[in-house]
Structure formats: structure tokens, C-alpha cells
Amino acid sequence: MAGYLFRNCAAIVTDAGTADGVPRDTDLLIEGAAITAIGKGLAAPEGVEVIDARGWFLYPGLVNTHHHFFQTFVRNRAELDWTKLSVIEWLDLIYPIFSRLTEDCFYHSSLTAMAELVKHGCTTAFDHQYNFPRHAGKRIVDRQFEAAEKIGIRFHAGRGGNTLPKSEGSTIPDEMLETTDEFIADCARLIDTYHDRGQFSMRQVVVSPCQPVNCYIDTFTESVALARDRGVLLHSHVGEGESEVIKARHGMRTVDYLEKIGFVGPDTFYAHCWELTDAELRQLAASGTGVAHCPEPVYLVGAEVTDIPAMAAHGVRIGLGCDGAASNDNSNLMHCVHSAYMLQCLVASRRTHPVPDPRAFLAYATTGGASLLGRTDIGRLAVGMAADLFAIDTRRMDYVGTRHDPASLIAKVGVGSPVDLTMINGRIVWAKGEFPGLDEAQMAAEAEATLSTIEF
């Protein structure tokens, strides 16, 4: 069985959530897709490649729990800047652009986002794909799975959708609308075609109606029924400014509305949740519902810094996400770990609960993300776990004075460049500045060519 032996690792952050989970000057052995040994002086079985890891810090692969890959095609555009527009003006401007994307746009934008994630140590990604223009057809998520296989990333596809027309209070153009029956039927098709429940699964599907304000209630009730019948997860946008709208429509805020219809529980996670009250956070903790926190949109949207200390104090399950390029112009989850910590420090004096330790933020992006995605085989470096990891060579000026605390390094100091190696399921997918077996320049040129077909 082929594999790798990382010999003499300067540090192995086996579990970011534990104080003693950083063995030094240690070896890590991988055979096939799994980690089979961690210890000093390990022997290399026949056929295993030995990698000299002196000076390297090894970390569990990062787990991205909320993104919109298709928005990669609207990056770095000053005319779409949130700071110059109201939310309604921004939505009216950007959604018509989204509605013009083609099937090829969805493929190449997904490939672009996945490549950037992998370069920066992300090994598992959840994408909330809620944009289904009628002209683009129903095979958009299929093309995302195709892109994931090419890059080699572990991919959880959130099949989203919008059903409420603009005439009834949503922000969605007619070209992007589906019926509830259309949405549920395609969710079922994707589950039947791609969802793999096995150990070290590389493909899973999450039923993910876009958000309560843009969907009929039956879209959510039918989502609950389908997900529970098929044993898959549920996801949606919650608590990002819509609670009073939901109260006006349904007589209750979003958390109560979703709890009433059963869109809660250990098989459910929400994105954002920055506007939730302390009582609502306690409700999430009690039901086991998780939160995918996306720190970097705070810079652009400027609403509130999500109260992560309160979530942590109440026992809410927390993961991290990049979010889409409409509110975060990069797909760099590594950077989000640093941003998440620094933003909490910025508002610490206004919080009831103290900012969690820096290593907790790395844990949100590893074990926390694994928990949100219902995975027990990723998120930690331990015998029997999937060989999902990234490596940083710390023998550089960037890391002088930081190497005494590998678990806090990413949150407190930040890592500004691509990692030295990313491995997923025992396969090296990024090393020495390259994607092995892929031509990055060609992929970028093809993506740019596809982007040029869209009118802005």
C-alpha cells in the first residue's frame, strides 16, 4: 500500500482544541487514505515515500463550512462595493449579474475557489450553491463535483435554491427562481447520484434552501422531510438581518420560525447568525444546531461582529467559512482564522464573555468544521483518521519568535503565503508551489476566458 512518512516534524498539531496536542520532533505515517502511526523513529514500510519534515509544522486540514464559489467571478469590482450602496441597491445590482452566469461559469468559478482553498491548507469545503439561472440548467452541482475531483478536494455540496418571487417580498430575479418541487427533486437526484456515507467520503450533499426570506415555507418543510428521510444535513442563511422581516411575515423571529418547522438539530447548521439574541444562541445550543461563522464579510457589510464568545460560552457548535466573493474577495480560509480572532479582540471590551484562546479559532476551522459537516473521520491528526493535512516550513524569517506555540500561530500571527504542502485523503494535491499533474496557468486562462463572456 502506497503512502508517506513525514520524518522529524518540528511539530504536529494533532488536535487544535487540546492544550497538549502538539508532539515535537515526531514522525507521522500515512498508508493509503489514513494516518496509521504517530511517534518518534517510525520505520518506513515498503513502498512508502519518506519526506524530510525537519522545520515543518503539520496541521489538520482546514474545513470550510460556508462559501458561494460562483461569486468568484465578481471579485475586485469597485462598482459592486458594499460601502457605496445600500443593501437593497447592492442586491438589485448584483443579482442580475448572477442570473447571467452559464454552466461553464459555475464550473470554472468553483475550480478557481477550490484551488485557492487548497493552496491555503483547506482540505474539505462546503459550498452553498443557491443560484440556478434557468438558462444554465440543473447540472451546476454536477459540474462542481467534476471540479472537486480535478483539484482533489473533499467536497460537500449544499444544493440551495430560491422559490419566493420578488413580487412577494424576496430579492431574487425571476430568472433565478425555482418551484419547491423543482428544488426538492434536484436535491433528491443529487443525493442519489453523489452522496457517499462511507468512511473518508469525498462527496456529500446537504439540503440547503437559500434563506427563509427568499423561500416559501413549504420549501423549508419539504427540505426537512427530504433530509430526514435520506439522512443528510440541512443548511441555510440565518440571522443576517432578516429576523424582523420574518417576524412581520410569520409573527416570530427566524430562529423560532425555523424551530417551529423542525429546521434545527444536530443535523443542521446555519450561516452567519450575527444578529441573534443571547436567548436565541441558547436555543441553538439546546437543539444542537451549529453555526458557520464567516468573519471577513464583517469588513465589507459592517453590520456587527458575530458574538463568538457568547456562542462558545453557551456551547454552540462553531465552524468557519469564507463566504462568497460578493462579501469576501478571497477564498482563503487560513486568512479567516486570523480575521476571526482579531475581530473578536477588536470588540472584546463590549462583550460579556472573554475572547476564546487563539488556538480555539484554529479548532473552529478543523474539529468545529468537521462537527458541522457531520464528520468524525476528519479534523484531527490521529491514527485511523483521514490523511487530510497541510504543512508549513517554519524555517523562514516570517516565523522567528513564533515557533514556541504552533497551535496559536495561525490565529494570532497569521500565515500570509500558500502552505508548503496540502494532502487530502493521503494524496498530495499541492506542493512546492504546484498542483501535481495540473497546469495552473492553463486552468487560470480557461477561467478568465469563461469570465470574459459575462457582461457586467
Automatic annotation (TrEMBL):
<dbReference type="InterPro" id="IPR006680">
    <property type="entry name" value="Amidohydro-rel"/>
</dbReference>
<dbReference type="InterPro" id="IPR050287">
    <property type="entry name" value="MTA/SAH_deaminase"/>
</dbReference>
<keyword id="KW-0378">Hydrolase</keyword>
<comment type="similarity">
    <text>Belongs to the metallo-dependent hydrolases superfamily. ATZ/TRZ family.</text>
</comment>
<dbReference type="InterPro" id="IPR011059">
    <property type="entry name" value="Metal-dep_hydrolase_composite"/>
</dbReference>
<dbReference type="InterPro" id="IPR032466">
    <property type="entry name" value="Metal_Hydrolase"/>
</dbReference>
<protein>
    <submittedName>
        <fullName>Amidohydrolase</fullName>
    </submittedName>
</protein>
<feature type="domain" description="Amidohydrolase-related">
    <location>
        <begin position="57"/>
        <end position="429"/>
    </location>
</feature>
<dbReference type="Pfam" id="PF01979">
    <property type="entry name" value="Amidohydro_1"/>
</dbReference>
